[in-house]
């Protein structure tokens, strides 16, 4: 019984923590991109700031999910079957349960993050689309076409991220809103039978957003792919990561060529440009 009681509270609590951390990580990524693109000189994120943001995200997630650890408990399925228990929310007052759902779950974990993510990506889209790059307006059709494709790629990635976030969590929040706010559901009704079937699917769909995002970023962003490769090769996730870029490879080639030329001419200098 003690193990079941502990698992009921621990699983519910950790599930809430992971959802909140995942959503707020998406918000942090969108804010970082907005600052990097719209304010490149002022919005640079250092390693120390990134660590503080990660600590803040997890601290917030651990605190906001505490009521689930307190109010989730085991209850018998029916009075006739006391040995079969379900892990459900047991709040002392219905008003406190409704208030927590609206503020902590619906607003802080869905609506407010969605507004922030959308606002950041709209700001990025406006900045990128209005930016005039040399070569775009000088009559060079090929350069202009490449720049336009690059802009469309950025906009497509932002739209995909926002749409997947909305569609992943929307069914689950619709179901929760109906259960919490829509009144009692008649036993053995069509609505109850539908909710019993689609609720686990909606919960799986919302949780899948956490594993979709890394795959999504890896497919749509070359820098994320290089970052993932650098983490795997360095076998660490914190600190400065070093990985080769095309510019560094060109620089190395030029340096080697210059040294070879100097050595051939009888010069012993090792200075590289």
Features:
2 domains; elongated; disordered C terminus; 8 helices; mainly alpha; about 75% helix
Describe this structure in words.
This is Neuropeptide SIFamide receptor-like. Belongs to the G-protein coupled receptor 1 family. It is found in: Cell membrane. This protein has 273 residues and is mainly alpha-helical. The chain has 2 domains: 241 residues, Up-down Bundle (Rhopdopsin 7-helix transmembrane proteins); 31 residues. It has a two-stranded antiparallel sheet. The protein is elongated, with a radius of gyration of 26 Å. The N and C termini lie far apart (71 Å).
Shape: elongated
Order of helices and strands: HHHEEHHHHH
Please report the distance between the alpha carbons of the first and last residues.
Answer: 71 Å
Helix/strand/pairing category: mainly alpha
Return the CATH architecture of the largest domain.
Answer: Up-down Bundle
Count of separate structural domains: 2
Helix % is: over 70%
CATH hierarchy class name of the largest domain: Mainly Alpha
**In CATH, what is the homologous superfamily of the largest domain?**
Rhodopsin 7-helix transmembrane proteins
* Largest β sheet strand count, sense and barrel closure: 2 strands, antiparallel
Strand neighbour order, sheet with most strands: 1-2
Could you say what the CATH topology of the largest domain is called? Rhopdopsin 7-helix transmembrane proteins
Tally the helices: 8
Into which percentage range does the β-strand content fall?
A: 5-15%
Overall mean confidence score, pLDDT: 76
Number of strand elements? 2
Uncertain segments of ≥5 residues (pLDDT<50)? 247-273
Which radius of gyration do the C-alpha atoms yield?
26 Å
């Amino acid at each position: 019984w003690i193990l079941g009681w502990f698992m009921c509270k621990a699983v519910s609590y950790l599930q809430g923590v992971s959802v909140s951390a995942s959503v707020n990580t998406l918000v942090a990524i969108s804010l970082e991109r907005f600052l990097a693109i719209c304010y490149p000189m002022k919005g640079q994120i250092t390693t120390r700031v990134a660590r503080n943001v990660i600590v803040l995200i997890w601290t917030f997630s651990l605190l906001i999910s505490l009521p689930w650890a307190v109010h989730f408990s085991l209850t018998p399925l029916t009075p006739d079957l006391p040995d079969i228990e379900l892990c459900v929310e047991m709040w002392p007052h219905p008003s406190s349960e409704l208030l927590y759902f609206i503020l902590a779950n619906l607003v802080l974990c869905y609506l407010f993050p969605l507004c922030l993510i959308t606002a950041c990506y709209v700001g990025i889209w406006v900045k990128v689309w209005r930016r005039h790059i040399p070569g775009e307006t000088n009559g060079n059709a090929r350069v202009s076409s490449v720049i336009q494709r690059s802009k469309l790629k950025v906009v497509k990635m932002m739209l995909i991220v926002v749409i997947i976030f909305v569609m992943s969590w929307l069914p689950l929040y619709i179901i929760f809103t109906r259960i919490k706010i829509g009144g009692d559901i008649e036993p053995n009704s069509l609505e109850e039978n539908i909710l019993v079937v689609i609720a686990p699917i909606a919960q799986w769909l919302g949780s899948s957003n956490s594993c979709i995002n890394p795959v999504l970023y890896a497919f749509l962003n070359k820098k994320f792919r290089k970052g993932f490769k650098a983490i795997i090769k360095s076998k660490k996730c914190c600190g400065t990561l070093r990985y080769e870029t095309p510019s560094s490879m060109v620089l190395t080639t030029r340096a080697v060529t210059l040294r070879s030329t100097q050595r051939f001419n009888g010069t012993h200098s090792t200075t590289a440009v």
